[in-house]
């Protein structure tokens, strides 16, 4: 069975979980505490980040972006990038936007400060980081809302990897109750459509160390 | 004529310059001072980073990773990722390694502290960042050397995007005289092979604000 090494709140691992489910590729989740730097895991992924995918063939694919490009090439029955060049450029542009910019400006400031930093006993969340994170999140929600008002899906007419990249970041933050959806009704409506996809089911059923997310997290009519 | 918006020391812009030259795709370089946030440029690339490529057709392609994937698909006469899945995974893994990990651990600590930060009058370089940057650079050179001793090129038997991603980061640092090549003879030998490729010529001829790099920068027998 295909294996995905992950951490439950990693937005990059979530992106791959959603994409594998959307592609109907079954997989087994395995928890990898990257901070332990297990030698066996370092051999699979010298960067020692999650996610890493291991195919039945034994092929090891580290890094969420590398995994998503690999899946696009290895399982061409479905494209999540688009059928023509402008669509593919726009999907990939937005994937980078969410993986890099949204992550650096929002997720790292909120999720990292509130969870990982405490788990690693590196101290309390920094007020400045939280403030910046919430302010940036508002701007990003407005941008998502703007896209969703002008297009059917974030990158255009078709559902794409951009939608999963954005939803992955947001679902991690939503799990810790950090997303104020009232900021943008259009973003909220788009996220409701994402949540109601079968691919989202496993992510919505997540419990972490027995801890449940806030009630609206899994509610399709939040 | 194809246009590439760039900054001369941006390692991401350098990667694309090298790749366009390797693919023999002619282009015109245009300097973009991203910190000025020109409205016309923000329309091309809302993330307001360099590089951005504009094709003759008018197609706008922002972000070095998106550009490289685009070129691979739009000009399939040459592949820089490899012909089979394991090769493609390994090239992409290493591209991410250099774009993300090498950049964060080395280039940002040295190049950003020494050039951009001063240009933007954000203060003097921080001693801690420089110390970390040099220490990390040594480890990365050893890793590059290790790869180059076990393989013909960094990702395997064939020259790939991984070689250009690594060479781009190193050439920016070499321009400011920050690379101690004596750390790894194998890395130095690999970089000498990269420098002697025709695709490298324009980058080696760079002058920035009339300033020349150290003499060994363009020397093929450094
Ligand atoms: N570029 C990587 C980033 C993955 C990443 O940063 N994962 C985090 C968890 S969200 C991690 O494993 N961090 C551990 C570390 O950086 O040492 C990807 O897209 O997969
Ligand atoms: N993911 C982007 C990163 C590009 C990037 O960070 N470029 C820097 C120059 S090396 C930049 O434009 N920085 C301006 C900014 O971040 O505002 C890429 O690969 O093109």
Automatic annotation (TrEMBL), chains A, B:
Superkingdom of origin organism: Bacteria
Residue stretches making up the GST C-terminal domain: 84-216
InterPro entries listed in its UniProt record: Glutathione-S-Trfase_C-like, Glutathione-S-Trfase_C_sf, Glutathione_S-Trfase, Glutathione_S-Trfase_N, GST_C, Thioredoxin-like_sf
Transmembrane regions: none
Domain spans labelled GST N-terminal: 1-79
Subunit structure: Homodimer.
PANTHER family from the UniProt entry: GLUTATHIONE S TRANSFERASE D10, ISOFORM A-RELATED
Name by which UniProt lists this protein: Glutathione S-transferase
Naturally occurring in which organism (per UniProt): Acidocella aquatica
């Amino acid at each position: 069975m295909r294996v995905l090494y992950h951490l439950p709140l990693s937005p990059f691992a979530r992106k791959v979980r959603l994409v594998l489910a959307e592609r109907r590729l079954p997989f087994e989740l395995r928890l990898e505490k990257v901070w332990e730097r297990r030698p066996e895991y370092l051999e699979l992924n010298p960067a020692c980040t999650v996610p890493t995918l291991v195919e039945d063939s034994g092929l090891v694919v580290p890094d969420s972006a590398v995994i998503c490009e690999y899946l696009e090439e290895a399982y061409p029955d479905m494209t999540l990038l688009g059928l023509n060049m402008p669509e593919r450029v726009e999907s990939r542009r937005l994937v980078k936007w969410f993986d890099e910019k949204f992550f650096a400006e929002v997720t790292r400031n909120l999720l990292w400060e509130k969870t990982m930093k405490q788990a690693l006993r590196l101290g309390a969340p920094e007020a400045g980081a939280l403030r910046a994170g919430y302010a940036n999140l508002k701007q990003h929600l407005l941008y998502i809302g703007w896209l969703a008002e002008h297009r059917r899906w974030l990158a255009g007419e078709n559902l794409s990897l951009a939608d999963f990249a954005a939803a992955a970041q947001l679902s991690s933050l939503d799990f810790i109750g950090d997303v104020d959806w009232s900021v943008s009704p259009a973003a909220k409506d788009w996220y409701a459509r994402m949540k109601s996809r079968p691919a989202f089911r496993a992510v919505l059923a997540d419990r972490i160390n027995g801890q449940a997310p806030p009630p609206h997290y899994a509610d399709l009519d939040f």
